[in-house]
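Build the 3D complex.
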Amino acid sequence: MVQQNNGNEAEAMDIFQEGIIALWTNISQGKFLLKDSAKLSTYLFAMCRNIWISKLRKQQKTQAIDGQLEANIPAEINEMEAQHEQIQELEQQFRKLGEACRQLLRLFYYKKASIREIAQEMSLTEKTAKNNKYRCMQNLRALYKTESQA
Amino acid sequence: MTAALIAKIEAFLEGRLSKDALHAQAELEGVTNIDEEIKWFQDSQVAIEAAGLRDQLQEALSQPEEKKGIIRQLGPLRTGFAIAASILLLVVVYWGMQSEQSTSLYATYEYVDPGLPVLMSQSDQHQLYDALSYYSEENYTVAAQKLRLLLEAGTKSDTISYYLGASLLYQGKPEEAVPPLTTLSEDSASPFHLRAQWLLVLAALKENQLAEAQQLLPIIVENQTHPFFEKAKQLQLELDKSE
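Done.
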């Protein structure tokens, strides 16, 4: 779909990856429930299609958008994409944190490691690991506040 | 925002703390926009998880330089595998999240029946007393075994069926808890009928059957005097919102 609409293989792979993350973002927030008759792959394709159209628009390549491509995009997909964009902004702020904070928060929230496991992995005491976790979340919040005021 | 408030928000999101308790802590700290803070916190957690997922996907989809020669020949095949692996990952994550959501809902709405205050001196049913003693001590495995033996021996009573269902639910066997609870939930003359209706909802949440839970809620929500009316209404709203 991407390659047929002014994109290359690498961009297709990027869009596919972005679609997976967008769908996952909405699943994890409880904003997406798979309907009995629907296939997950159908939603994934629709999400990828939407993300690609948005990207082309941002690059002002609107003439490259095939009319067929834009047809019949369900409203829920647009909402899901908007939600994904918000999370993407927060993800960018997370990536601005220092390496230690990123590692700690990733271990805790993504890998679901306990404070004890994090302390062992990062050679910290449990108390320090716990304090650092809160400090890192506060840093992330401060970044968000600064960015949203800018 | 203090570390204490962050900890409370986390506890609330995990279903370990009520919204009222969280609001009380926020008031104590002079935080007036607690709902915004909860939303930010929730979104941030998702963003951190999304970053982790992105890194993992990039790792899975990237091509190591030294193997490029072979990989070029296997290109389409490899891409196919990567796509299949990613979809599989998404499916696994989806079911994982569904299960996580229902686990957290179960924790939020859990009701643990404390059991009957049976005094041995007042009871001529020693075996039932014995089983209910284990139940009161939260030893649900032994309680269920003893209650099941009583049923199998032909002693039929609503008390036995109800506490057998409850014991099985609390020990993590919701599927087995459903038959005895269903019978009671349909018998309006039974003193356990309303409680059985709610335990069936909890069994559905525990089994990750959100649609089933939704189907069981209307009968509770239609009855304003039902002891679980408020909880059921709240859960119904929450499930409708997540659709």
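Chain A has two domains: 1-89, 96-150.
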